[in-house]
Description:
The chain has one helix at about 100, and strands spanning about 5, 10-15, 15-25, 30-40, 45, 50-55, 60-65, 75-85, 105-115, 115. The chain is mainly β and about 120 residues long. The radius of gyration is 15 Å and the shape is elongated.
Amino acid sequence: MAVQVEPAAIQVPASGGNVSLQLMNGNPEVRFAFKLKSSNNEHYRVNPVFGFVEPGAAAQVEVIRQNGPPKGDDKLEICFAGAPPDAGTPRLSSLLDLRASSRSTFLWLLHEYGSGTI
């Protein structure tokens, strides 16, 4: 896969917290657009939701967990598609017609509570 996500899983307190992700483009010639989707929009925010990862570079995404009860099945979907070099805004670009030409990776959102994890 041309875009890798680090870390592959994140762990945040159910009481809230922030984690940074790196989206790394291993392709030296292709620019990728990305979009993030959460299975739990009530407790998670991401910034930015849309963006580009330039060839051979990385983009940082902040995942913010709001205080709330832990759930065991939360996940973050990261959709990405090749983007032309002159594409200006990933949100408005037709390249983000994610049904047709994209790939996705999933990141499980694990919650800490007490001294253990789920």
